[in-house]
Design brief:
Rossmann fold; three-stranded parallel sheet; 14 helices; 321 residues; Tyrosyl-Transfer RNA Synthetase; mainly alpha; 5 strands; binds tryptophan; 2 domains
């Protein structure tokens, strides 16, 4: 099965990104064909500075590689290194109407917030469709916020195939369920925009600071604590198998262990869990040229696949004389 997804380079990755998305993508490598890219064209819609865009893109590349994405086995690239997808976006754009695009949440929400939307934000679902269709992708793991974009993509592909003959694979969305959502340190969904994240590649000092800021009730050491309603328990449990979770829940219910102690323990668990990846990332980020090289290798593979689909589309439309 060919699996594809993209992630925008928008700052430091957090446990929510890791447990809902990155870990899953990396695990697919064992049995599927993984296409994974850094969606830097899409992130232009939030108008980053040159410095932030460059830094965040290289950081995200280092994060993925450190966490186990294998550029030999999978195809891993920077979106803008396959510029032909912007051509494909143009070819696809005739297969969706302006009223349909106006329904996109990504666009509507910004307008509702009073933000003047750029043309790119309006066009975003079409570019995303090109990302997907250019690679013959069969399955697309995304968060629930992307469900509508996937539906638009399927509609575009179907209408294109109907108009010009079988050209594109119709992709299936794999919606990463919201129950699996990771809690932030304040108990809301972990999100950069809520400022409630724990970042696995942060310095030890910053990690400690965020873990010690996880909200708890005021139960003392000698009181029984309720794991079910505890944000600390929820975050800690991410790192444990079923048996260890039960043990931890028992420790919460049994007087004798304070929240401070549990937080200190969680810090050690996080450092241990990401220990290898943290060391690898430190090395990778020192060798930026190697990182760029890895992305170029991925871009070469990605361009080859994209070109076959785009050439077919050009032919079927009547652009190739
Ligand atoms: N829009 C996606 C997000 O913000 C990122 C993305 C761009 C993407 N192109 C894609 C995801 C193609 C899946 C497939 O999360």
């Amino acid at each position: 099965m060919r699996i594809l997804s993209g992630i925008q380079p928008s700052g430091k990755i957090h446990l929510g990104n890791y447990f809902s998305m990155m870990q899953r993508m990396i695990a697919y490598q064992a049995k599927d064909e993984l296409f994974c890219f850094i969606a830097n064209y899409h992130s232009l819609t939030s108008r980053p500075t040159k410095k932030d865009l460059e830094e965040n893109s290289l950081d995200l590349a280092a994060d993925f590689l450190a966490l186990g994405l294998d550029p030999m086995r999978s195809t891993f690239w920077l979106q803008s290194d396959v510029p032909a997808i912007t051509e494909l976006a143009w070819l696809l754009s005739q297969q969706i109407t302006v009223p349909q695009l106006e329904l996109a949440h990504s666009y509507k929400d910004k307008v509702a917030q009073g933000i003047q939307p750029g043309g790119g934000l309006f066009y975003y679902p079409i570019l995303m469709s090109a990302d997907i269709l250019a690679f013959g992708s069969e399955r697309i793991p995304v968060g629930p916020d992307q469900k509508q974009h996937l539906e638009m993509c399927r509609g575009i592909a179907r209408r294109f195939n109907k108009a010009f003959g079988e050209t594109f694979v119709i992709p299936e969305a794999e919606i990463i369920d919201e129950l699996g959502e990771v809690s932030g340190i304040d108990g809301r969904k972990m999100s950069k925009s809520y400022n409630n994240t724990i970042c696995p590649f942060a310095s030890e000092k910053d990690l400690k600071k965020s873990i010690f800021s996880i909200v708890t009730d005021s139960k003392g050491v000698q009181e029984a604590k309720d794991p079910e309603s505890s944000v600390l328990y929820k975050i800690y449990a991410l790192f444990l198998d079923v048996e260890k979770r039960l043990e931890l829940a028992d420790r919460f219910r049994t007087p004798g262990t304070g929240y401070g102690h549990l937080k200190q323990e969680l810090l050690a668990v996080v450092l241990d869990y990401f220990g290898e990846a943290r060391a690898k990332r430190d090395e990778l980020i020192k060798r930026k040229d190697d990182l760029r090289e890895q992305l170029k290798i991925g871009a070469k593979k990605a361009n080859e696949v994209a070109n076959t689909f785009i050439t077919k589309a050009r032919e079927n439309i009547g652009l190739e004389l």
